[in-house]
Amino acid sequence: xxxAVAGGTGVVGSRVVEALRADGHDAVALSRRTGVDLATGVxxxxxxxxxxxVVDTSNVSTLSADAAIRFFQTATGNLVAAAARAGVPxxxxxxxxxxxxxxxxxxxxxxxxxxxxxxxxxxxxxxxxTQFHEFAGQLFDRAKLxxxxxxxxxxxxxxxxxxxxxxxxxxxxxxxxxxxxxxxGPREEALDExxxxxxxxxxxRGWIPSVSLPGSQMKAMRAGLALPGSDAVLTTQTxxxxxxxxx
Length: 247
Known about the structure:
Layout: E1 2-6, H1 13-22, E2 26-30, H2 44-48, E3 53-56, H3 65-86, E4 91-96, H4 105-118, E5 124-129, H5 135-142, E6 144-145, E7 148-149, E8 151-152, E9 155-156, H6 161-172, E10 178-179, E11 183-184, E12 189-190, H7 191-201, E13 210-211, H8 216-222, E14 233-234, H9 239-244
Parallel strand pairs: 1-2, 1-3, 3-4, 4-5, 5-10, 8-13, 11-14
Antiparallel strand pairs: 6-7, 9-12
Domain NAD(P)-binding: 43-134
Protein name: NAD(P)H-binding protein
Keywords: NADP
């Protein structure tokens, strides 16, 4: 099969491409680096022409609900339109567990993105996954008060990006499912402890206080609204397993 992966050079998209190629499929990464711009639609028509499936792992770095909604409605809207014009038989979207329970900030954009796909004429599958193990490192880099790193409190059940990529590859080479079962890691973790463990692993020895960040989204995550239900598909790599491979 020939599969186009939007965001195919990113944290998860690159894993989708790897998994597809390992299984003998022809995977094409769509990104600005490869001449495709989802925000403007440049290069999309030729990129999805003749493919058997499209996987959307596109992303934007923002905490603004308005900015996230604008990006995902535009980018995924352009991708859906191009896929429909090309007669692509399957569109797979990566989303996040619990966004309908906490439609705030960035998650409001992901919920809007799901609605674009659900209204699409292209047969679709939506996979919601929990936060990635890599989330700890992202927060260590971004959650700061001046030079002081912060460890936000939240309840999460992190999953390996490689496992999400492999699961998306399997979904893309199968029949459209609508909403697939959620995907999550093997155990619940405290997000602040994940951030601290990542910091220690990478050589940071300074004090990192645990904090309850303001805002509706973080309050919801502290309440456990980002956790999957009992019917989720569970992977096997724990955060501790993943952390051992971090340099």
